[in-house]
Design a protein that fits this description.
Blueprint lengths: L5 E2 L6 E5 L2 E5 L1 H23 L6 H15 L6 H10 L10 H10 L8 H14 L4 H12 L11 E2 L2 E2 L1 H7 L16 E2 L2 E2 L1 H11 L5 H11 L1
Length: 220
C-alpha cells in the first residue's frame, strides 16, 4: 500500500488505496495509476536537478519546492530512497525522520524541521568527511548503533513530587498503585500479562476489558 499500487499474489488483481479502504483496479486503471506515480517521481527529479544543493538553506528550499510539486509523495520514505538512488551524492541513506534525527543528534547537531533539510544536513556532513553517503551511513551506524527509545515518566501528582524519594531508593512508579510491585508479576524475564490483566480488571476496569487490556500493555 505504501507505494500506492501493487498486485495481489493470489489473484493478480491490482490494488490501490489503503489497508482500511482498498480499491481494486482494472488493468487499464492500474496502468494509468502507475504512470501517474512515475510522472510524480520524474517531476520530483526535475525539481532536484534544477536546484543548487550546497547548503542547508538550499535543502530547506528544496523541501518546499518538492511539497509544492508532488504533494504528499514528498514525505514518503520510499520516494526519498528513490531520489537517493538517482542522486546518491545529494541525499542521505536514512529515509525515516526518526533515523535522521537519531544520527544528527548523535553528531551533536540539532535536526532541521524539514525532512529534506535533515537529509541535506547529513549529506553535507558526509561531503565534509570526504565519504560517499553510503560509506558515511555505514560508518555512522557502526559508531552510534540503533535508535534509542526513552520513556518520559511524570514524577508528581496532586499530593506532591516523588522524585527525591525515587532517586534515593532507585525506583520509579507509574500509577495504578493497587497493582503493587510489577516484579511480583514476572514470569522468567517477562511480565505475565494474563495475571496482570486480571488484576487490572479486578481493581480498576471491572466493566471495560478493552481499556483494561490497553492499560495493561502500557504498564508492561
Amino acid at each position: 500500500y505504501k507505494f500506492g499500487l501493487f498486485q495481489r499474489k493470489d489473484d493478480k488483481v491490482w490494488i490501490s488505496g489503503s489497508p482500511n479502504n482498498p480499491t481494486e483496479l482494472s488493468d487499464d486503471d492500474a496502468l494509468a495509476k502507475g504512470k501517474e506515480i512515475r510522472d510524480i517521481l520524474l517531476k520530483g527529479c526535475q525539481v532536484i536537478s534544477t536546484s543548487s544543493l550546497d547548503y542547508v538553506g538550499d535543502y530547506q528550499t528544496l523541501d518546499t519546492k518538492l511539497n509544492e510539486a508532488i504533494g504528499k509523495y514528498a514525505s514518503f520514505g520510499w520516494v526519498h530512497k528513490y531520489f537517493h538512488m538517482i542522486y546518491p551524492d545529494k541525499f542521505s541513506v536514512w529515509h525515516s525522520s526518526d533515523w535522521q534525527n537519531h544520527i544528527l543528534y548523535a553528531y551533536g547537531i540539532i535536526p532541521d524541521d524539514k525532512y529534506y533539510a535533515r537529509s541535506g544536513q547529513l549529506s553535507i556532513i558526509s561531503s565534509y568527511a570526504k565519504l560517499s553517503n553510503a560509506t558515511f551511513g555505514q560508518a555512522s551506524y557502526d559508531r552510534f548503533g540503533d535508535i534509542r527509545q526513552f520513556y518520559r515518566i511524570g514524577t508528581s501528582d496532586n499530593e506532591g513530587s516523588y522524585f527525591s524519594e525515587w532517586f534515593h531508593d532507585a525506583k520509579v512508579a507509574i500509577g495504578w498503585n493497587g497493582i503493587g510491585d510489577l516484579a511480583d508479576y514476572l514470569q522468567g524475564r517477562d511480565i505475565n500479562k494474563k495475571v496482570l490483566l486480571d488484576k487490572m480488571v479486578e481493581l480498576y476496569y471491572k466493566t471495560d476489558n478493552k481499556t483494561a487490556s490497553r492499560k495493561t500493555n502500557e504498564l508492561i
